Amino acid sequence: xxxxxxxxxxxxxxxxxxxxxxxxxxxxxxxREKEVKVAFEYELNPQTDNWMxxxxxxxxxxxxxxxxxxxxxxxxxxxxxxxxxxxxxSDVRPYISAMTLTEAGHGxxxxxxxxxxxxWIWVNWTHYDTDGTRHRNLVRSPWKSGTYTWNSKPPNIxxxxxxxxDTAVIQAKLDPLGKYIAYxxxxxxxxxxxxxxxxxxxxNIDNVIHHLGPMPLTRAKxxxxxxxxxxxxxxxxxxxxKLWRFTGTGNGNNTDPGAVTEYHWSTGAETRxxxxxxxxxxxxGLMVARFGTDRIKVLMGFVRHPVRQxxxxxxxxxxxxxxxxxxx
Length: 328
Fold this sequence. Notes:
With 328 residues, the chain is mostly beta strands. It is built from three helices and 23 strands. The longest helix is centred in the first third of the chain and has 9 residues, at 10-18. 40% of the residues are buried.
């Protein structure tokens, strides 16, 4: 695992992004692999069957926000972010409203943050000039249901510093306490991750605490980097100590089976958790939530088809333990 610790210079990282240099590749060799216990949490009912991309649980209100991808004209894509309330007696969370971001991109990563009881949505928003030139901006917006375009944006939306050109895909996930933020930088068949302080980002301070990657996003890149699987990206999540990456195609496909891999930010040590049997569907979306003072849950989304259902399962960590519960 390639790791950069401490205060890394953003300019150096951008230079490496623009012109890749030779370095040691991340490999599976020596990684621990575990079968783990997976628990069902609830089903999501957004009232539309567009493909699920990601989700985020708001612990303050016990609501779930779920992104779906909708095909638009000319190969462009629209993001629908659904708001779903507490589950009913059948463990189904019903839909109450949505924000639709027209031609804003794939919607494969969203994050939620409450600031003084105001709910903010983080997403990478794609938009186009009149000549078709594409731009990508990392934004956060107060939640307000409705349909929007880049030229008619939600009120009080903020374009957040990405520290990269707006041609790069920069996505963000906040930690459960809202103190740190993990950036995902993807392109050229691979992705990399940076841990930053949310305060630094809000102050436009380019300060990377930890860095992990590159990791493959295609089979060809996986072969090049020496990986045998985990190139189909399906989500990620982070705390101050660890990064979790969700991969795999599911549905009985053994070429790249469903897996959650945890990486220590500071050392790069990795453990792969096989979750291929968690559900019969395709992995879609990941987040980490804290429960009380002694537990966190890694929440995983799955899409069942051909009869489309959106399911959430979980892995539970005891905070004083370094390993997940083992399967019976």
